[in-house]
Amino acid sequence: MLGCTYGNLFKTTVAGGSYQEGLSINIQGVPPGYHFTEEEIYVELMLRKPGQGELTSPRREADVPILFSGINAANTMPGFKNAGYTNGTPLVVLIPNVDRHLEHIEQYQSTNRTPRPGHASYASYQKYGSWDDSIGAGFFSGRYTSSIVAAGCIAKKILKDHGIEVVSFVREAAGIRMKDMSVEEIKKKAAAYREVRKQYDPIYLDLFASGKMKPGMRFFEKAAILAELETRIPDIKRPIYNEEDVRKRYGINPKLFCPDADVADAMYDEILRIMQEGDSSGGIVEVIVTGVPAGMGEPVFNKLDGELGRLMSIGTVKAVEIGCGMEAARMTGSQSNDAMRIKDGKVVFTSNQAGGITGGLTTGQDIVARVAVKPTPTIAKPQLTIDKVSLENKELAAVTRRDPTIVARMWPVTEAFTALIILDAYMQHVGYQAMRPKNQNLKNNNHAD
Question: pLDDT by residue (tens digit) across 393-418?
Fold first, then answer.
C-alpha cells in the first residue's frame, strides 16, 4: 500500500488496521539523545481513544503503546547513562489491538457487502477488490489515527525542546462555536484536560500509575501484560468522578475539550440531542503553533500552508483553512493585510489574518489553522446503499459501534499531525540556515555601499 509515509527529514510510516493485530509507527530522523516512555505516549493516545463516554464509540481499545526499537536497551559503556534514550536509528512504536472480539467481526461481516454512505468502503473495494480489509474499515477506519497521535507525541517533545509548541482544541461542534481566547489560556486548559484524563483513565491507573508497566521492561514482559489486560478489559471499571468538582478545580468539561467550559456544555448537549435522533454531527478543530521562527518553509510546491493542507489526509477532514481562511474571499485588501511595525527593535504585526504564513514561509507569528470535521458516516437511520458485489439496490441501518461525533476525538489527531508537518519543516529550515557562508568576506559582500 502506497501513501502511508510522510516527511523528508522526519519521516513517518504507519501500518496496520482496525481489526488486524494492531498498528505500527516507524519514524526515521529522530535525533539521538531524547528520552521517551510508553507512559507519555499513552497520555496522548488516551485523548483520542474510544470507549470513554457518550461522545465516543463503545469499543474499548486500550491503546497502550510499546516502544520496540530506536532506544538503547542498556547503558552502552561504563560511565555512560544512556539507557532508554534514542540512538538515532528508526524509532518503532507498536499499538496492539485488544478489543476485537468475534461478535464485533461478525457484525461487520454481515454488513460489509452494503457500503456505509459517506465511508470509504465502496471506494476501497473498487481499489483492492475482494482482498480489501473491510473488517472495521481496516486502514480506512479512524482507528489508524492512533498511529498519527503516537508519532505526533514524539514530534511535539522534540519541537518543545526547541521552543515550539502545538496546541489544538474543539472550536465548533454541532453548530455551536466558541469565542476567541488567548493561546496562553488555551494551553493552560489543555494541560488541565490532560491531567484530569490521567486521573480518571482506567488503563492509565491500572498500568502506569500502579507501576505495572514501566521503562526498561523487555518486549515479552510488556506483551504479557497486554495479553493479561485483554482478558480483563471488558470488566475494568471506569473511575467515578464528580463533574462539578472537576469543573470548579480545573475549569474544563472533562468530556469534550473546548477551552470554554460553558460552550463545551452546550456543544455536548446538542451532540447528544442529534444522536438521540439517530444522527451524527460534525465540527471544527483549531490548531495553533507558537515559537516558530520567521522564514521557515519552502516556496512554490512545498509552501508550508500547502503542507498544512495535508491535514486533509485525516479521514474525517473535509476542509483546511489557514488564518482567516475562507473569510478572505469576503474581505478587502485593507482588512486582509497584516500591517507591520517596529516595536522595541522587533517586527510586530497588527493582526494575523495570514495565520502566520505568507508566500509559504512563516512570518514569526503564531501559525493558526482549522479543519472541518464531517459528521460520523455511521448513523442509526436507514440509508440508501447498494450491494457492492451483486450491484443491487439496498437499504442500510447501522448495527456497528459508532461515535455520535468525531470532532471530540479529532483535536489530538490534528495536533499530532500538525507537529509532524512543523517538525519536518523546522529540521529542513535549521539545516538550510546552517549552510549560510562561514567565510567573513562572503558575509560582508551581502551589503552594497
Answer: 999 875 555 678 999 999 999 999 99
